[in-house]
Design a protein that fits this description.
With 191 residues, the chain is an all-alpha fold. It has two domains: 115 residues, Zinc Finger, Delta Prime, domain 3 (Up-down Bundle); 50 residues, no CATH class. 63% of the residues lie in helices and 0% in strands. It contains ten helices and no strands. Helix 2 runs parallel beside helix 4 and helix 4 runs parallel beside helix 6. The longest helix has 19 residues. The chain is elongated, with a radius of gyration of 24 Å.
């Protein structure tokens, strides 16, 4: 028999400093950030910080996850900003008030950021498809180049690499191809 998630989650057995269920505070923080409700999200973060060092540490983990899971391409700098604020906060000892500024700013950034959940949706689709449908990755032909055993056995060298294996998409429009062209010219001179 599978043990229900709530019986496995230690936060279901913790109450916050103001006697709120910690698991509900954690859940509400993420849901309020998803909806851009800054004031209540900040209050929830503050509740976590006041409660304990452990709940504060877990809050920072959630903020980092939220920056990728819920914000994603909406603000690609969010993970960098949240990590920077996390690093800054760690220089201030608990329970010094200035320490809490960094988390509040992190909440504000996440609440105001545009959001998209593409990474989480892709991960969950993959996990489900691998488990339920046996989905496996494919090795495309263009990956068989001079860096692989099969590519070497096929005689694929640097020219195949530059013409096929090193293609990028989407490619920057009007990029400088000076050195690519020079390299190709040198490779063609080797033949």
């Amino acid at each position: 028999m599978t043990v229900p998630h709530y019986q496995q989650d230690p936060w279901t057995r913790v109450r916050t400093v103001h006697d709120l269920p910690a698991d509900e505070v954690i859940s509400a923080l993420q849901k309020e950030i998803r909806r851009g409700n800054t004031e209540n999200a900040a209050l929830l973060a503050y509740e976590m910080m006041l409660t304990s060092a452990e709940l504060e540490a877990f809050m920072w983990q959630r903020l980092q996850v939220i920056s990728v899971e819920d914000v994603g391409f909406g603000n690609v700098n969010a993970p960098l900003l949240i990590n920077t604020l996390f690093e800054m906060h760690s220089r201030f000892p608990r329970p010094r008030g200035d320490r809490y500024l960094f988390a509040i700013q992190a909440v504000r950034i996440l609440c105001r950021s545009e959001k998209e959940r593409g990474a989480d949706e892709l991960l969950n689709w993959m996990m489900t498809a691998v488990e339920q449908e046996g989905l496996r990755p494919k090795i495309p032909d263009y990956a068989l180049d001079m860096h692989t055993r099969r590519g070497q056995e096929m005689g694929r060298g640097r020219e195949h690499f530059i013409n096929e294996a090193s293609q990028v998409a989407p490619e920057v429009a009007d990029r400088d191809t000076t050195y690519r062209e020079r390299w190709l010219k040198l490779l063609q001179g080797d033949e």
